[in-house]
Amino acid sequence: MIIMKASAFAPGHISAFFEPIYQNQNAARSGSRGAGINISLGATSHVVVDSSVNQTIDIFLNNKKADALVSKLAIKHLIGDTPLHIAINTKLDLPTGQGFGMSGAGALSSTTALAKLLHIPKEDALKASHYAEVELHTGLGDVLASSFGGIEIRREAGLPPWGMIKHIPGKFEVTVCIIGVKIDTKKILSDPAKINNIASYGRYCTKKILEKPSIENLFSLSQTFTKKIGFADKKVLDAIDAANQYGMASMCMLGNSVFAIGNTDALYKTLTAFGKVYVCFVDECGARILEAD
Q: What percent of the chain has a predicted confidence (pLDDT) above 70?
C-alpha cells in the first residue's frame, strides 16, 4: 500500500463586480469578467492518497465530514475513474456563501495538492476546479483569480488561453465584515433575469476599470455595481457608508458582507458594530503547495 500526503493553500477571493459569461456549455470559455482581490484568508487542504480497488473520496471541512460538492466534482474531473482512496481535510478561514470564494478555494487547494501527488500538471488542477465551479453555479471567476493571486482585473472570461488577467499593484490590509445571512449564489447564477441585470452593470464596470486600473477606481465602481444590482440591504449599505469615513468599502459579491481598506484600526472598530470582523491582507502568490511527501 502506497500512502502519499500533500498540503496546499488557495487564497479567498472577493469579487468587487463581475459580468457572468456562459459560452454554450463550454466551461473552459465560461466564467466572468470583472475585478477583485485575493486575500490571505482562504482554504488549506491536507490530502492523503492511498491505493484502492475502488474510488472513494472522503472530504472533511474544518474537521467535519461534508458533501463538499465543488471539491468532490473537481477531484472527479482531475482523476476520472482512477481507483484511489482520497481523504481530504480542508480548513476554511471564512464561511461559505458570503462572497469570499471559499468553495472555489477549497476545490483549488484540494486539486492542487492532489495533482502534486499524482504528478499531474498544475494547470489541470485549475481546470478541474474551474469546471466544477461553473457546472455547479457556485462561482464563475473565483478559481481563476485564486490561482494567480493579487488584485486582479479579469479582462476575458474562462481559462487560459481565453481567460486573461491584468493585475493592479498594491499591498494592502483588507478588513472584511460578515453582516447578514448567506446568499445562495447558485440561485442567483441560475436566474436569467438576475444574470442579465448583473451582466449589464458588470460589463460597464469592467470597461471602466480597464480604462483606469487603480484600487480607488475598483472600490468606486464596486459601490456603483452594489447599488445598481440591488442585493445589498440597509444594514450592508449603512456599513459601507460608515467604513467609507476611514477608507474605501463595498459589498463582497455575492455575500451579505463588506470589504474595506484604509485605516485598519478605525475600520475594525467601526465595522464591529455591524457583524463579525476579520483583518487580512492581499495575497499576491495565489494557489500553492505547502508541503508534500
A: 100
